[in-house]
Amino acid sequence: MNTAVWIVIAVVVVLLIVAIAVALSKKSKQKRVEKAGEIRERAAERSAHVEHSEALAQKSEADARRAQAEADAKAAEAKLAQQRAHEHQGAAAGQRDELDREWERANKLDPTVHDDGTPRGGDRAATDGRDAGRQDQVRQDLPGHHDQVRQDQVRQDQVRQDPQGRHER
């Protein structure tokens, strides 16, 4: 066989191998493009789910911030109410002390009762009726003092009922 024929056969074989390689390369490239397209489709499908999850997370975070703000406001309100209650208790204690001093002053001025509020001599009925009626009337005229009136009456009854004449509190 002639050398030229062998060269032509060799060139044809090389061209055939190159053509096969190019065809395989294109087929491989096409498969990679298709695979990338499939991945993109799945990612697009999951994207809606992820966006929904992100929106839910943002809403939950906003709810948590709002709840925390409400809790902080309630805590501040409770602290303020506690301060007011403390102020009212202090004022009430001061008023109670002032009222007790008034009772003591009245008992010292009244010649029919001892300094501790017990009646002198046998005039118990007159003193009890006069003092209790006046005290109840004055206290009933003041709003919010009904419980205190009852406590004062119990305190006066204890003082009056003490057989040894001691002043109880």
Question: What does this entry look like structurally?
Answer:
- It is rod-shaped and about 160 Å long.
- It has helices spanning 3-109, 124-140, 146-161.
- The chain is mainly α and 169 residues long.
Distance between the termini: 141 Å
Helix/strand structural class: mainly alpha
Order of helices and strands: HHH
DSSP, total strands:
0
List keywords for this structure.
0% strand; 3 helices
In short:
The protein has 169 residues and is mostly helical. It is 83% helix and 0% strand.
Topology record:
Blueprint: H1 3-109, H2 124-140, H3 146-161
Helix pairs in contact: 2-3
